[in-house]
Specification:
With about 150 residues, the protein is mainly α. The chain contains 4 helices and no strands.
Amino acid sequence: MFSLSVVLTLVHLIGFALGVGGATLKLYMLLQSASDLSLISSYFRTARTITRLIVLGIILLTVSGLAMVVLVGARPFTALFIIKLLGVGAILIIWPLIDNVTEPRARILAPQGAEAPNAQFRSALRLYVTLEIVATALFYLITVIWVVF
């Protein structure tokens, strides 16, 4: 039979695949759209779906990670584990900022049709890209610590 630890690890791996995979895909598509603004409307149409997968991944990772610590107790609080927890906390802070502030602002300011992008849009897009890079890099940092730990 499956033990609680095995089930939680499986849920953690599924959350990892959804979170990191979705974040990587979203960042790649955003970088492509930022370099070719004709793709930006397509990006914004698909970004919401990808964001839902990332959110599901974050929820699965957080719940299974907390359950592993509380129920299984298999993780000692080492320096690496604390850094990992700080990274998770940073993602939990950046994620609503991206989804509720920077992405909607860039979406609203995005040029329509053949319209030229204005300075406000370029500034909003630059901040949006920067936060997505930081969030995705944090996902990968946490992954490396998870593998090493």
